[in-house]
Amino acid sequence: MRRAQVYRWQIPMDAGVVLRNQRLKTRDGLLVHLQEGDREGFGEISPLPGFSRESLADAQAALLAWASAWQTGDNPPFSALPSVAFGTSCALAEVQGELPEAADFRAALLCTGDPDELIPALAALPGEKVAKVKVGLYEAVRDGMVVNLLLEAIPDLQLRLDANRAWTPLKAQQFAKYIKPENRPRIAFLEEPCKTRDDSRAFARETGIAIAWDESLREADFQFAAEPGLRAVVIKPTLTGSLDAVRAQVDAAHELGLTAVISSSIESSLGLTQLARVAAWLTPGTIPGLDTLSLMRGQLVRRWPDSTLPCLTRDDLESLL
Q1: Where in the sequence numbering do the catalytic residues fall?
Q2: How many other CB atoms sit within 10 Å of the CB of residue 169?
Q3: What DSSP line would sit under 223-288, residue for residue?
Q4: Could you write out the DSSP letters of every residue in 196-214?
Q5: Residue 21: is its pLDDT beyond 90?
Q6: Residue 144: HSE in the Cβ half-sphere, 13 Å Cα cutoff
Q7: Torsions phi, psi of 99, nearest 5?
Q8: pTM above threshold 0.85
Q9: What residues contact 320, with CB distance under 8 A and at least 6 apart?
Q10: In the chain, pLDDT over 90 holds for what percent of residues?
Q11: Residue 286: pLDDT above 70?
Q12: How confident is the model at residue 16 (pLDDT cuts 50, 70, 90)?
C-alpha cells in the first residue's frame, strides 16, 4: 500500500540575502512524503529563484503528477525538472533504503559581513579550516583585499571563492592583483570567475589561481575534461536532477582527478541534512558547501545538528495532496 503527501512551505530569510540582484525575503518550496508499507521517505523540492530553470509553480504541477502516479502503484520516471527529480529521488531512496544514513555535517563556513569579525570565527574552526567567500558582489579590488587579509591572518586557512561569472577579464585581474603570490595556492578554487569559460581559463593560466566549474555543468555544451588550472566541480543537486544524475557527475569528476563538492542551493534544514548524507556517500573526505542555514530563520521537519532555529512540522504546512 502506497501513500504520497505533498506540502507547501515558506521560511523567512535574513534581510541581507541577495541573489542575482534580487532580494530573497522568503525561501519557498515543496515537501513530498512517501509511504510504502512500514517505510517512509521525504524529499524537498525548492527551485532557487534566479538559478533554477523551473518556477515553483512548474515544480508543483510536476510533483503532484508524479506523486499521484506513484501512489497508485506506477513507477513513473523522474521529472525533467531538476528540483523535482532530486526531491522525489531522495524520497524514493529513503523508502527503498538506498540513501545511507551516515552524514557529513561539516560545512565550509560561509563568510559574510565584516572581515575583522570573521577572523576569530575562522581561527576557531576545528580541524581542516575551509571557508567560502562570495566575490563579485562589490568592487573587485575590495574583494581581493578582503581575501588576502583572511589568508594573511590565518596561515592554515583554505578559501573557496565563488564569483558567479561576475567579472570581466579586467576586473578578474584587478582582484588577483591584490592576492599575494604566496597566498594564491591557499585559494582552493575560484568558481567561474569570468562571464565565459575561455576567459576563466585564461584567468587561471595568467594568475595561477585554480578555478572550478559550477554553472557550466548545467549548460548543454559542457563536457567533463581535465584542464590546466581546473581543480574542482561544484555540484548543486537541486539544480542537477536525480540522485543518479548527481552520482554520474561525481563519478565523471573523480575519474579525471578533479575534486567534486556537493553544494547547497539554499535548501531547508531537511534538504541540507539529505545533502550531508549524499556528500558522505559520494564525496567522502571532501567538506561539502552546506553552510546556508544561517541565512534562514527557521528549519523544516528535520533539524540540522546543534541549530537552535525553530522547526516547522508537517502540521504547520499547507497540504496539497
Answers
A1: 134, 236
A2: 17
A3: -----TTEEEEEE-HHHH-SHHHHHHHHHHHHHTT-EEEEB-SS--HHHHHHHHHHHHHHSTTSPP
A4: SHHHHHHHHHHH---EEES
A5: no
A6: 19
A7: -100, 110
A8: yes
A9: 6, 7, 8, 30, 60, 64
A10: 84
A11: yes
A12: low
